[in-house]
Amino acid sequence: MARLDTREKLAILADAAKYDASCASSGTSKRDSRDGKGIGSTEGMGICHAYAPDGRCISLLKILLTNSCIFDCHYCINRKSSNVRRARFTPEEVVALTLSFYRRNYIEGLFLSSGIIRSSDYTMEQIVAVARSLREEHDFRGYIHLKTIPDADPELVRLAGLYADRVSINVELPTERGLKRLAPEKDGGRIEGAMADVKAAIVDREDAKKKYKSAPSFAPAGQSTQMIVGADSASDRDIVLRANNLYDRFRLRRVYYSAFSPIPDASAVLPLQRPPLMREHRLYQSDWLMRFYGFSAGEVADAADAGGMMPLDIDPKLAWALKFREHFPVDLNRAPREALLRVPGLGVKAVNRIVASRRWRRLRLDDVARLTVSLAKVRPFIVTEDWRPTLLTDRADLAAWTKPAQTQLELFGG
Ligand code: SF4
């Protein structure tokens, strides 16, 4: 490997890390240095958890320890056979960079992943060394997200969880079939085994914390995973059902969906084109329906078309409503909260405000207009004191009717 200075390494290793979407920093415990102790913070003045429109977090130093790898996953730009420029940081260099970026207010934390060098254990030791040094030698209190290596010694994964706010292990592909085809050196069973170990450690620490306040925490922001979308033939229905299965079994905080991007010198088994970014967006919306809107995975999957794909031109909540019109219109003055959450165009905030307001008076269309930003989009699906959409929900052209020109009904409007 040619000798590179830190700036050159950073250019290579930050670029190589951009393919990993699983870096959101929400949901961790509060920790700061405002009492003059330590350095960094997971919250407070000057720190924002900024998300790009596609859900990616944008305020962490997001790098790989190295983009060299002994594996040869077809979809990965860092695979062994890839003809890319390689670079490698030492743990000390990553620590110095993190502290220097933090002091300059560029970042609130670190997202660290790595290609596999020498062995899974060796790589994991290096990753843990960075987090240990930041926490123990520099009293760093900012956010740390470590990507763990599934085959690594469970003791190393446990150490990672002691230092990190969040740990993640990528399942990579939505189906075992896809994993075998595109990442033949990876083992779905071992990936899930590692996720189960992390879950058990999180549960143990939570129990210990209930008894002893001083019990050390373990990955307080939980664990997450990432699935690549569009590199194999898995449908949106497959992806939604798989995500739900992972949430249930491993108590994941988040599943991230990353639209496959074609890479230079791509393997012949990969598609030539990336899937539309809107597909990734629709999967995130589907995920929200399961996590915040009370939809079961089966219901969300039912919004897909006959080929198992979510429509791209309308959001999954509207797609579901158009398919299951017997659930509408919903009477905003009487219906339970769960039914309100199913109305296209009503977000959680709007529903909460409707539930609070209707305790005092019967809601009219004007009231709904004040509570939402998308009355025109909501109207076909609701009943208020002065409004009933006669036969509207039976219209064959309701989908077009609910879509203003050039814009579409948004799931989280209102
Ligand atoms: S193990 Fe990770 S870094 Fe290595 S080729 Fe596979 S996906 Fe890429």
Automatic annotation (TrEMBL):
<dbReference type="GO" id="GO:0046872">
    <property type="term" value="F:metal ion binding"/>
</dbReference>
<keyword id="KW-0411">Iron-sulfur</keyword>
<dbReference type="InterPro" id="IPR023874">
    <property type="entry name" value="DNA_rSAM_put"/>
</dbReference>
<dbReference type="InterPro" id="IPR013785">
    <property type="entry name" value="Aldolase_TIM"/>
</dbReference>
<feature type="domain" description="Elp3/MiaA/NifB-like radical SAM core">
    <location>
        <begin position="59"/>
        <end position="286"/>
    </location>
</feature>
<dbReference type="InterPro" id="IPR010994">
    <property type="entry name" value="RuvA_2-like"/>
</dbReference>
<dbReference type="Pfam" id="PF04055">
    <property type="entry name" value="Radical_SAM"/>
</dbReference>
<dbReference type="GO" id="GO:0051536">
    <property type="term" value="F:iron-sulfur cluster binding"/>
</dbReference>
<protein>
    <submittedName>
        <fullName>Putative DNA modification/repair radical SAM protein</fullName>
    </submittedName>
</protein>
<dbReference type="InterPro" id="IPR007197">
    <property type="entry name" value="rSAM"/>
</dbReference>
<dbReference type="InterPro" id="IPR006638">
    <property type="entry name" value="Elp3/MiaA/NifB-like_rSAM"/>
</dbReference>
<dbReference type="InterPro" id="IPR051675">
    <property type="entry name" value="Endo/Exo/Phosphatase_dom_1"/>
</dbReference>
<keyword id="KW-0408">Iron</keyword>
<dbReference type="GO" id="GO:0003824">
    <property type="term" value="F:catalytic activity"/>
</dbReference>
<keyword id="KW-0479">Metal-binding</keyword>
<keyword id="KW-0949">S-adenosyl-L-methionine</keyword>
<dbReference type="InterPro" id="IPR058240">
    <property type="entry name" value="rSAM_sf"/>
</dbReference>
